[in-house]
Amino acid sequence: MSAEFIKLYPRNPDPRRIEHIVKALRDGAVIIYPTDTIYGMGCDIHNTRAVERVARIKGIKPAKNDFSFICYDLSHIADYARVGNQAFKLMKKVLPGPFTFILEATGSVPKILNSNKKTVGIRVPDNDIPRQIVHELGNPIITTSIRDEDEIIEYSTDPELIFEKFQNQVDMVIDGGYGGNVASTIVDATDDNFSIIRQGLGELTL
Fold this sequence. Notes:
Residues 15-202 form the YrdC-like domain. By secondary structure, this protein is of the alpha/beta class.
């Protein structure tokens, strides 16, 4: 069965459509959605079968996944990650924004992802579509990037082309306009000696 193709506007996403997406996530849907950088794929973190589906689509073993979590804000972050004072100050300053912060995972994360993960990536993107989805859902969604097989273009940016490629693998593709092709900046914040693992869209002076 082909995926739904849903148009949403990043600054004022339609609450009824958000509700529809959230209901699907609770029922185990895998969705593709825009962020403030590139398009991502994800599902409700608490739905094990959906997490396994995302891993299969990506061609990786669930236990070996490197999925990050998209959060609405930093209010529930302590449920999933241990955050030092300096890391919290930095995150508060730059989020929402194009950053992924790698933090020490709490005990609940390996159980959620059925893995031995010691760390977790946290994203609070500056895009109201994924933020409103997780706000309405009441917990984060996992996120992994949509890569392109083209040797020059690393990430797919056109939601209609993304739909064509994934319509028989996922349940929903959310069109929030053209995406970027530069990923988030990944910051290792597992201790106070912050380091940039991958320079992406976000500019940070450490």
